[in-house]
From TrEMBL:
Gene3D superfamilies: Cytochrome P450. GO terms for molecular function: heme binding; iron ion binding; monooxygenase activity; oxidoreductase activity, acting on paired donors, with incorporation or reduction of molecular oxygen. Heme binds at C490. Pathway: Secondary metabolite biosynthesis. Its cofactor is heme. InterPro entries: Cyt_P450, Cyt_P450_E_grp-IV, Cyt_P450_sf, Cytochrome_P450_monoxygenase. Belongs to the cytochrome P450 family. This is Cytochrome P450. Keywords: Heme, Iron, Metal-binding, Monooxygenase, Oxidoreductase. It holds the Pfam family p450. The keyword Oxidoreductase applies.
C-alpha cells in the first residue's frame, strides 16, 4: 500500500506533530491546519509521488498521519504516564472533552458531575486535563486569594467573535475574560466601585420603581394564571428594556437565553472557538446578543451621564479622569452586566418561589415574618437593612441558592501559564495545564457539609437547632458558594441579594400565590438546564391580590 519505508516516516511525523501540540497547545487556526496537512504533503513530495497519482497516495498518507496522531493523543491520555492517571473518572471523560460537551448539550451537566462524585469520590477526572474537586478544605487554594486564575473555559466563552468583545482591544479591562491575575484585578477595580454601599444606595430608587412595576403589572393580569418565571426574567432584564410593559416583542430575552447555549458548549472545548468563528452561521443567537449589547452601549454612551446606574461606573466614570474605555471593552462590560446581572437573579427568584409554593408551611411562615416586619398598607418592604435582618427570609433565599445555585458547575481555575505546577493543601499538586472545577451544585448537596437530608428543602437548617427527629443541623458555611469566593467571586452579590429580598417581600405582601391547576411539580427540576448559568422552564402560577 505504501512505498517501502514511507509508513514509518508518516507515523514519525505524526508523533513529532503530537509532541509539538502537547508542548505548545497552539490555537492559531492557520498553524493547526498547517500541522494537520503539511507533514503528509512533504512526505509525499519527498517520496516523489507523481502528480497523476498524487491524490491516492496522499490521501493514504494523510489518513495514516491523522490515525497516528489520534492514537498518540488517546494512548497518552489513558496511559499511566499521564499526570492525572491516578485520579478516577469515566473512560469517556479521560479520552476527550467531547463527551462532556455532549452532556452539556442536554443541559444536565450539574446532575452528571454530581453523579460522578457520588460514584468516584471528592476528586474526579472529568476531562483529559481537568479535575472536578468537591472538597471544601481545598476551596481556598483554588478559588481564594492565594488560589489560581480563571481556567481555559473562559477562552471558549468569547461570544462576539474576532471584532467583538474578544478582540485584543477589549482584553485589557475585560473582567470576565481576564485569565491573568494582574489584568483581572485591574479590571475588577471599576466593577468594585460600582458595587460599594454608596453606589448600591444610588440604585435603590431604580430597583424600587421596577419592583413596583412588577407587582402592578402582575396585579393587572387578566388571565387566571401567569408564567412567573417569565415575569421574573422580564423584571430582571433591567432599565431601558421595557419587557414588563411590552413583552419580549423584539426577542431580547430569547436572544439571551439562546445566546448562552453556544458558549456553554464551546467552553468545554475552548480550542474550537477559533475554528468556529470562521463559520458565520455558527452561534447566530450569541452574535445577536453581542450586537444587542453593542446597541445598548452606543445608546448609553450617547445619552451620557444622566443615570445613576451601573453603566455610570462602567462607562462614564472613567471619562472624568482618564482616557475613555475602548468601545469593544464597553460592549463586553455591557454583555457581562446584562447576562451576569439578570439571568442569575431571575433564576434565583423563580427557584425560590417554586420551592415556597411546593412547601406551603415555609410559605406561611415567611408570610408571618414579613407581615410583622412590614405591616401591609403601612410599610412597603423597601428598607434594605430591615430586609436583610429577616431571618426566615434569608433562610428561604439561602436554601434556594443551596439547592439550585445559578452557576452550578462552572467555577473553573487553572495554574497560570508557564508558572509550573500548583500545590494545593497538603502536597496535593495540580500539574500545569490542568484545569480544576469546583461544582457548587454537588458541594451544596454533600452530606458532609449539609445534613441531615441535603437533598431536601429545609430553610430551618439555616436557623440552627435540630430537625423534626431531633437531629442537629450541620451547615458548613465554607461549602456554601453560590456566589463563588475569592478575588473573582460575584461582584454583584450584594445588589443581587437586595433585589431578591425586595422582590420576595413585595410579592408575598401583595399576593396569594399558588401553582396553576394541573401543574406537575416534577417538571421544575427536569426543566432546569445548566448552560453556563442555570436556565429555567415555565412556572404557571395563579396570582390573587391579598384581601385588604
Ligand atoms: C443574584 C444572583 C447571582 C448569583 C448567584 C451570581 C453568581 C456568580 C458567580 C458564582 C460568579 C463567579 C464565577 C466564578 O467564580 O468563576 C459571579 C461572577 C460575577 N457576577 Fe454574579 N451572580 C449573581 C448576581 C449578579 C449581579 C446582580 C451582578 C451585577 C451586574 C453580577 C455580576 C457578576 C460579575 C461582573 C461577575 C464576574 C466577577 C469577576 O470575574 O471578577 N452577578 N456571579
Amino acid at each position: 500500500m505504501f512505498p517501502p519505508n514511507s509508513a514509518p516516516t508518516v507515523l514519525l511525523a505524526s508523533l513529532v506533530c503530537y509532541l509539538f501540540l502537547k508542548r505548545f497547545e497552539p490555537t492559531d487556526v492557520p498553524l493547526l491546519v498547517g500541522l494537520l496537512v503539511v507533514p503528509p504533503l512533504i512526505v509525499s513530495f519527498l517520496r516523489g509521488d507523481s502528480l497523476d497519482l498524487l491524490f491516492g497516495p496522499l490521501l493514504r498518507s494523510w489518513s495514516l498521519y491523522c490515525s497516528g496522531l489520534l492514537f498518540s493523543i488517546l494512548t497518552y491520555r489513558i496511559s499511566p504516564l499521564h499526570p492525572l492517571s491516578k485520579y478516577p473518572g469515566p473512560m469517556t471523560c479521560k479520552i476527550s472533552k467531547l463527551w462532556l460537551t455532549f452532556v452539556v448539550s442536554r443541559g444536565k451537566l450539574h446532575v452528571y458531575v454530581k453523579g460522578l462524585h457520588d460514584k468516584y469520590g471528592p476528586i474526579v477526572r472529568i476531562g483529559p486535563n481537568e479535575l472536578s474537586i468537591n472538597e471544601v478544605s481545598l476551596v481556598p487554594s483554588i478559588l481564594g486569594v492565594k488560589g489560581m486564575p480563571k481556567g481555559p473555559l473562559w477562552d471558549g466563552r468569547r461570544i462576539s467573535g474576532k471584532k467583538g468583545p474578544g478582540s485584543k482591544e477589549a482584553v485589557r479591562g475585560n473582567l470576565i475574560g481576564a485569565r491573568d491575575l494582574k489584568l483581572h484585578s485591574e479590571a475588577r477595580k471599576a466593577w468594585n466601585k460600582a458595587f460599594v454601599p454608596a453606589a448600591i444606595k444610588g440604585y435603590e430608587p431604580i430597583l424600587i420603581r421596577r419592583v413596583t412595576q412588577l407587582v402592578e403589572s402582575l396585579g393587572a393580569q387578566k388571565s387566571r394564571s401567569v408564567d412567573l418565571s417569565r415575569w421574573f426574567s422580564f423584571f430582571s432584564f433591567g432599565g431601558g428594556f421595557e419587557l414588563m410593559r411590552d413583552g419580549d416583542k423584539d426577542g431580547l430575552w430569547h436572544k439571551m437565553e439562546r445566546g448562552l447555549y453556544f458558549p456553554a458548549l464551546a467552553q468545554q472545548i475552548p480550542w474550537c472557538i477559533s475554528f468556529l468563528l470562521y463559520f458565520p452561521m455558527v452561534g447566530q443567537e450569541m452574535k445577536a446578543l453581542g450586537k444587542f449589547a453593542m446597541d445598548q452601549a452606543k445608546r448609553r454612551l450617547n445619552e451620557g451621564s444622566i443615570h445613576d446606574d451601573l453603566f455610570y461606573y462602567l462607562i462614564d466614570d472613567k471619562r472624568v479622569d482618564a482616557e475613555p474605555y475602548p468601545f469593544p471593552l464597553v460592549v463586553s462590560n455591557s454583555v457581562l452586566a446584562i447576562v451576569a446581572g439578570s439571568d442569575t437573579s431571575a433564576t434565583v427568584l423563580a427557584n425560590t418561589f417554586f420551592l415556597l409554593l411546593s412547601h406551603r408551611e415555609s410559605y406561611e411562615r415567611l408570610k408571618l415574618e414579613l407581615d410583622e416586619a412590614f405591616p401591609r398598607a403601612v410599610k412597603e418592604p423597601t428598607d434594605p437593612a430591615l430586609l436583610s435582618s429577616q431571618p426566615y427570609l434569608n433562610a428561604v433565599i439561602k436554601e434556594s441558592l443551596r439547592l439550585f445555585p445559578p452557576v452550578a458547575t462552572s467555577l473553573q481555575r487553572a495554574p497560570s501559564l508557564r508558572t509550573g505546577d500548583k500545590v494545593l493543601g497538603e502536597g496535593f499538586i495540580i500539574p500545569e495545564g490542568t484545569a480544576v472545577v469546583v461544582p457548587p451544585y454537588t458541594m451544596h448537596r454533600d452530606p458532609r457539609y449539609f445534613s441531615p437530608s441535603p437533598e431536601k428543602y429545609i430553610p430551618e437548617r439555616w436557623l440552627g437547632g435540630d430537625d423534626d427527629t431531633g437531629t442537629e443541623f450541620i451547615v458548613n458555611k465554607d461549602a456554601f458558594i453560590p456566589f463563588s469566593t475569592g478575588p473573582a467571586n460575584c461582584v454583584g452579590k450584594n445588589l443581587g441579594l437586595l433585589e431578591i429580598r425586595m422582590v420576595v417581600a413585595y410579592m408575598i405582601q401583595a399576593f396569594e400565590l399558588q401553582f396553576a391547576d394541573g401543574y406537575d411539580e416534577e417538571r421544575w427540576e427536569d426543566e432546569l438546564k445548566d448552560y453556563l448559568l442555570m436556565q429555567k422552564g415555565s412556572l404557571p402560577v395563579v396570582v390573587t391580590s391579598r384581601a385588604a
